[in-house]
Write a structure and sequence with these properties.
Radius of gyration: 28 Å
Largest sheet: 6 strands, mixed
Strand content: 15-25%
Strand order of the largest sheet: 3-2-1-10-11-12
Number of helices: 15
Distance between the termini: 71 Å
CATH topology of the largest domain: Purple Acid Phosphatase, chain A, domain 2
CATH architecture of the largest domain: 4-Layer Sandwich
Number of domains: 3
Structural class: alpha/beta
Number of strands: 27
Shape: elongated
CATH class of the largest domain: Alpha Beta
Amino acid sequence: MPDTLKLAIVTDIHHGPDKLTKVGSAAVPLLQDFAAFTRDYQPHFIAELGDRISDIDAVTDLGQLELVAGQFADLPAPHRHLMGNHDQVHLSVADNGEVLGQSMAHYSVDVSGRHLVFWQLDSRIHHPQGFLPNKADLVWLAADLAATNLPVIIFTHVPLDGGSLQSNYYFDNNRRFGGLPHQREIQALLREAGNVILCVAGHVHWNNVNLIDGIPHITIQSLCESFTTEGAAAGAWATIEVDHEVRWRTYGNDAIALTVPVRGLNSHWRQPLPSFEEHIQKTAIPTGLDNITGLILDMDGVLYRGGTAVPGAPQAFAALRAAGIEIVALTNNARASAEDYSAKLARLGIHLAAERIVTAGQATARYLAAQSTAPSVFIAGSAALRHELLLQGAVESDEPEYVVAGIDLDMPLSTLAAAVGHLHRGAKLIATNPDPMLPGGRGMEPEAGAVVAFLQAASGQTAYIVGKPNREIFALALAQLGIPPAEVAVIGDTAETDIAGATAAGLRSIQVASGNQVKPESPHQATANMADLTAVADRLLG
């Protein structure tokens, strides 16, 4: 059995004034308790994971940092510090290093048969984006992991796992500040190295564990956080003991204990596996176009372009209906209501009741209604979208929970500017659909995706897309059809929304060339490709 490695960890000290969920005035006394604990516990190594202070200004921050540094002067084991985001708002990395008496560069050391890595990845928050990837950080870590044959434990300030932040007081509402945008790249690096057995972080102010490829990713509660402890400081620090298993314990008012086995070196969860999309295509979606009794039709580019019917579409639609094939129309366009679209189709010689038309506006309204009984919203979209949202109980507000993005060609830039302000104040970005453009009578026209791209770039948020390719909007269409999914096909002109969404929903799909240009190199491949709805009708009706 390997020797037992004993570690003591403290993080997110936040020495400074009391704030809404941080009892900063308790930091120094609690650190004194932590020091006394380590003298009894006698760890092999002590890790402090960053955010030592609550930033105020350069002079105040320097004084606070000096008080914190003094608590680490006489600890019974070697210790190392990491940079947190609050540590470098008004102070430089060099300032921190000078006060703490150690380099704040990347650092690794072998202790009791394990390789400890203190990865000083860029933990500055860049507004409005959040954390930004730094290629040099990745290069250093890859080289350090390749240079050791020992099991590796990685310490960082920001977690590497991208775990759920649901109900976290601060980060649930500020997710771009809670994790790393390049976490998938980091996890792939760890997998390739094959020798990482544990990752430990702070930053998100709660205890959590996430197993990825057998590697426990542990986050440790803040010393002074109070939102989980009814207003009292959590008084949290942790021990981790590693031999044939990892034994983690956080002490204080938010205590937790966990034991997991240590994975073997170069031991991975089953690989290789196909992508989940490929798996669905191979196992769940019927092949060919036989036994289709229901169709979900996109409208723009399938039934019409702008104000003109696609040639042959009215006749093909009528033939399909006459043959007993059930049809529901599903559009990502939220500029009009289902009743408006039904009337438009009638003018083009295509007869489909409003009850058989599902719009992204309807889906968005239903999604928000499922979040709360009266969600407060700011709407950057059409009058039809506003009608759908209010009909389902949404309430317009100057302090919204959600910014709902659609498209309105008459929307002023001031509306987008107001939306950006709400997003920076904590509102969540919800989008009707991601389409950047759609086919119109005079060529391509901008769609909601263009508005979403603007708001994402200006806010740093990533929108939640309700419309296609979200499988949930296809579930609404299937419910309207009332036909088993195995007998349904989706017809659309856009691979990234119609075809990708059909695959995600486990449905067959037909991509037509009468709307958006078909991209042969797209990763989203339909069951069949055809010229237009006329060709589809000819094939399905024999």
